Amino acid sequence: MAAVGGVAPDSDAYAAHCARLTSTAEREAVARALRRIVRDARGRGPLMSSRVPLHVPNIAAAEDVIDEITLRLHSPRMVGARGMARLRVLLADGTGPVYRYGRGDLVGRLRAALAEL
102 in helix, strand or coil? Predict the structure, then answer.
């Protein structure tokens, strides 16, 4: 039984959501987003942007883990939906460690996501 307001793990909607999270298209989109934040953190991105500013030191410290994740996302091996969800939340959370004014341990969160992949 799922918590109130949650989706039961055996439901068709949950299965569809997991399938979308682990699809090749989603894997490629997340890998592109990770590569983009590394590129932008290195100063190779657009000069003007409406995106939330990146936390450059956090991203620089996490480059090796980001490389591991992107390689894993491009590999033919299956990935776990939970790891993909963690990565999506990390990229979307403007108050998280990817972004300049965010908080948290980027390397730790990336390693946790990698472990769930």
Answer: coil
- 8 Å CB contact between 70 and 27: no
The residue written with tokens 């989603």 in the block is 26
Global confidence as pTM: 0.86
- Number of CB atoms found within 10 A of residue 65's CB: 18
Per-residue pLDDT of the chain (117 residues; tens, 9 = 90+): 444 455 566 688 889 999 999 999 999 999 999 999 999 999 876 655 667 889 999 999 999 999 999 999 999 999 999 999 999 999 999 999 999 999 999 999 999 999 999
Helices (H) and strands (E) in the chain, counts: 6, 0
Domain spans of the chain? Answer: 12-44+54-116
Contact in structure between 97 and 109 (CB atoms under 8 Å): yes
Task: List Cα–Cα distances, 40 to 45, 65, 82, 98, in angstroms.
Answer: 4, 17, 27, 12
